[in-house]
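Entry for nicotinamide-adenine-dinucleotide complex. Fields follow.
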Amino acid sequence: MAFNLFPRSDAGSPPSPACSSPSSDIDTPATGRSVLFDGSLNASLDNLHNQYILVTGGLGFIGSHTSLELLKSGYNVIIIDDLSNSFQTVFDRVRLLAQRYHQTQGTECPTLQLHDIDYRNIPALCTLLDNHKITSSWDSTERSSIIGVIHFAAFKAVEESIRQPLKYYSNNVSGLIDFTATLGTYGIKNFIFSSSATVYGTIANRGVPLKEEHCVHRPETFPGTNEMVEQGCTGITNPYGRTKWMCEAILADLAFSDPEWTIVALRYFNPIGCDESGLLGEDPKGVPTNLLPVVVKVMTGQYEQLSMFGTDWDTPDGTAVRDFIHVSDLARGHIAALATATKGELRENFRTFNLGTGDGNSVSDVVEAMETVSQRPIPTKAVGRREGDVGSCVAMAGRGQAELKWKTEKTLRDACKDIVNFLRVREEEEEQSLQRQGQGQRVPLAVAEVSS
Ligand SMILES: NC(=O)c1ccc[n+]([C@@H]2O[C@H](COP(=O)([O-])OP(=O)(O)OC[C@H]3O[C@@H](n4cnc5c(N)ncnc54)[C@H](O)[C@@H]3O)[C@@H](O)[C@H]2O)c1
């Protein structure tokens, strides 16, 4: 199934949130394309009893791993992604891995769809949502077969957000307002939001693990004390972080105004690693800004060395300390949040959760672990602190463990091992492609045997 596309003349201006005249001619301000790849693995929309999870940004680093975990857990998944920072091949890989998983389990694989649209394109969104309206056979009421939304789509580069703040406020904040307003009109009110530890701002520098109560949207008493925590934020150091805080505040207000909403904001610490198959990984378009994709570029010879931003932080080895969490653990955190929310077991209808391990590792620790696992040297260069950074940022992970019944399982070493495997698979694929084109061979990446 494919929609026709007639590019708009005013592409780039913000789309209207009105759904009054949904059109089959889909316009896509950001990409200029619109194709629905119906990757249904078996059943289709014809089965009205099916329930779907809508995942925006589902082809990105975290979205692709979460979409896979959703499929493994039996949810049908509809991805909206404009491919601004991801590749369409990721869709085939998620589907393949889900199929393999269900084959080994002897279970039926749920359906998976991709809509290559900007999530801010409200007419296109309404067309999609209209296609998922179902009518109850016994009281004829209408509802949506989409039972929850996980919203990953956003821009995320801190430095770029300092240079181009409006780009970030438009995609991350304005987009969210129109998106939730539209979902609300379809009665889709289970919402999981990708937030970030950046909402803690410079509180991170106090050298204590960060608790959810360090950043609240209604006044609360800090646990174990009589200290009142005022709503608001402290020392958020860049526009990207502010977009995440603003989105949380908007969602908290929305949940307060309408108890039908159930909203979870998941505050990610530092996701790294990739699926152990080696078929999914962190593969951003353009210049990478997160630590591990840069390390990978050094390992593969694309960059000469790794710039260590700040070696004079108040940390044991002077390099910045972060709470690195394996992306597959992070993805499972979304499944736990979704299950808790859809069962009506959230303590409040807006709730924040840290997704971190509770342990900090320095940038030097990560480099060392990658060198050990890959048996490749990773040259580093000390450079000054990067604008918008903090020295340390580590989670207190207890709330997620207690209320979502979720905890991390994988280690930093597991993450490094999986990244090296991802690289090996990619090099093998490139090798095969070169051979098909009748070109020369390249030296393969040595992978150390590491017991996990
Ligand atoms: N990776 C991290 O370190 C990190 C940390 C904290 C929070 N987050 C948040 O998690 C979410 C996912 O991050 P990620 O690392 O997977 O990023 P990513 O860039 O890999 O994935 C985002 C995906 O969203 C898509 N996208 C962006 N704008 C869109 C739009 N308007 N319409 C449709 N698709 C759009 C991109 O093409 C991409 O596939 C983001 O909201 C990010 O802010 C990420």
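NOTE: Residues 1-16, 20-49, 443-452 have pLDDT under 50 and may be disordered.
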